[in-house]
Specification:
The chain has about 325 residues and is of the alpha/beta class. Helices cover about 45% and strands about 25% of the residues. It has 2 domains: about 1-95 and about 235-325, 3-Layer(aba) Sandwich (Isopropylmalate Dehydrogenase); about 105-230, Isopropylmalate Dehydrogenase, CATH 3.40.718. The strands form 2 sheets. It has a 10-stranded mixed beta sheet with strand order 2-1-3-12-11-4-5-10-8-9, with helices on both faces. Strand 11 and strand 12 form a beta hairpin. It is globular, with a radius of gyration of 19 Å. The mean pLDDT is about 95. Bound molecules: 1,4-dihydronicotinamide adenine dinucleotide (NAI) and magnesium ion. Magnesium ion binds near residues 222, 226 and 253. It comes from Halomarina oriensis.
């Protein structure tokens, strides 16, 4: 048996960090069969569509997908692909690594972000010139599902849960989210804190060590996780998992980074750490731990890419990770 992995490098640095990560996976003694698919701005320019059907089908039928990043077409690529794998949970661990300069070296938390609703699947409209609207959907079903996932995830790790919301202003929609989360929490007798998301943003900057699992509506999870990236040394370090019931897609939190794309200096750590999450999701816990240890070892001892103050190329970092494995 081997794991059938769809690989979608996408655009920009996605095309650099994804092959680097495949190299790391190939150096493990886990049987993989990789199939590469196209998507993103380049594909749109060449083939007239950012997300060809063959890519969606490949992702749907694979055991799991490793995704790099898309550029301007990201919304037309990654949102449908998350849906293709039936992902309702976006898991984003954020931690500071020894040896890497961090504003907040105590940071070690995980965002569990609702992945199907809210403004990202909202309907935008321009009613008349200069007057625009956004309608978003928040349901009890989806809110309960992410809450159950978040409480389970926290329980497995013995972690505390903080629920982010803005139900004081968005009384109906965030109110629904909060009511549903409370219902699930109460059914389980779970203990958790609730915080308004704007205040939470401040607390995350000032005392990130006080937070473990942060359960978020869709947009808040996106914003707060990038904020937290700033606490630990940048987007080059943040992995993510888009988890469904029987399929999943793993990707760095960052985008195609056009400012550094093509220079061979993108930090591959976020994508390699995403691959570690993929290994664990596949049940290959030992291999996942080995990849994480190897990446952490290289972050700590170098070589490091320029975003972390180093001078190394993506390839040097990849070589060092593979050597440790
Ligand atoms: P970005 O994440 O691409 O870049 C933000 C900053 O982080 C840049 O300074 C970049 O150089 C740096 N950075 C990102 N990844 C890095 C890495 N691996 N190593 C070192 N430095 C790294 O976000 P930005 O600039 O807002 O968006 C650029 C493009 O990416 C846009 O077209 C956007 O639509 C797309 N995007 C795609 C996403 C996806 O495919 N999931 C997510 C976010 C943005
Ligand atoms: Mg984002």
């Amino acid at each position: 048996m081997s794991y059938d992995i769809a690989v979608v490098p996408g655009d920009g640095v996605g095309r650099e960090v994804t092959p680097a990560t495949v190299r790391v996976l190939e150096s493990l003694d886990v049987p993989f069969s990789f199939t590469e698919y196209e998507a993103g701005d380049g594909t749109l320019a060449e083939a007239g569509e950012a997300l060809p059907e063959v890519t969606s089908q490949g992702v749907e039928s694979a055991d799991a997908t490793l995704f790099g990043a898309a550029g301007e077409s990201a919304a037309d690529v990654i949102l449908p692909l998350r849906e293709t794998v039936g992902s309702f949970a976006n898991v984003r661990p954020v931690r500071a690594y020894p040896g890497v300069d961090a504003l907040q070296p105590e940071t070690d938390l995980v965002f569990v972000r609702e992945n199907t609703e809210g403004v990202y699947t909202g309907i935008e409209d321009e009613i008349t010139e200069g007057v625009t609207t956004l309608t978003r959907v928040v349901t009890d079903d989806a809110s309960r599902r992410i809450a159950a996932f978040g409480f389970d995830y926290a329980e497995q790790r013995g972690a505390d849960v903080t629920v982010a919301h803005k139900a004081n202003v968005m009384r109906v929609t965030d109110g629904q989210f909060l009511d549903s989360v409370r219902a699930v929490g109460d059914e389980r007798g779970a203990e958790y804190d609730e915080l308004l998301m704007d205040a939470l943003a401040m607390h995350l900057v000032q005392r990130p060590a006080d937070f473990d699992v942060v359960l978020c509506p869709n947009l808040a999870g996106d914003l707060l996780s990038d904020l937290a990236a700033g606490l630990v040394g940048g987007l080059g370090l943040l992995p993510s998992a888009n988890v469904g019931t029987d399929n999943a897609l793993f990707e760095p939190v960052h985008g195609s980074a056009p400012d550094i794309a093509g220079q061979g200096v993108a930090n591959p750590a976020a994508t390699m750490l995403s691959a570690a999450l993929m290994l664990e999701w596949l049940g290959e816990d030992e291999a996942g731990r080995r990849v994480r240890d190897a990446v952490e070892g290289v972050l700590s001892d170098g070589p490091r890419t320029p975003d972390l103050g180093g001078e190394a190329a993506t390839e040097d970092v990849t070589e060092a990770v593979v050597e440790r494995l």
